[in-house]
Specification:
55% strand, 7-stranded mixed β-sheet, 121 residues
């Protein structure tokens, strides 16, 4: 079992930055990945970024490439999502998740509780 606690959301203006954190505990498998997803009101949950615990390889959704950076601190068992140049369309509840997959929500077994990010224009 893996427990995830995500935090760091808030209300910012367009162009500003936020850093989200995802603290993992329990059985954290080196073969797992940590992904960030987001869900806006009335929309499906969508992939944002993912990082591998083992080799640090990363992937991003096209909509956030060049603005968001995912990173990890193995010693703290924490994954971060640095979000720069935020846009109103980035407004959503952001979730971190752990699993064996990459881009699909169905490939993730464990989820955080979500943290709200609101970007005003």
């Amino acid at each position: 079992q893996v427990q995830l606690v995500d935090s760091g959301g808030g209300l910012v203006q367009a162009g500003e930055s936020l850093r989200l954190s995802c603290a993992a505990s329990g059985r954290t498998f080196s073969s797992y990945v940590i992904g960030w997803f987001r869900q806006a009101p009335g929309k499906e949950r969508e992939f944002v970024a993912v990082i591998s615990w083992s080799d640090g390889s990363t992937n991003y959704a096209d909509s956030v490439k060049g603005r968001f950076t995912i990173s990890k601190d193995n010693a703290k068992a924490t994954v971060y999502l640095q979000m720069n140049s935020l846009k109103p369309e980035d407004t959503a509840v952001y979730y971190c998740a752990s699993g064996l997959g990459r881009y699909s929500t169905s490939q993730y077994q464990f989820w955080g509780q979500g943290t709200q990010v609101t970007v005003s224009s």
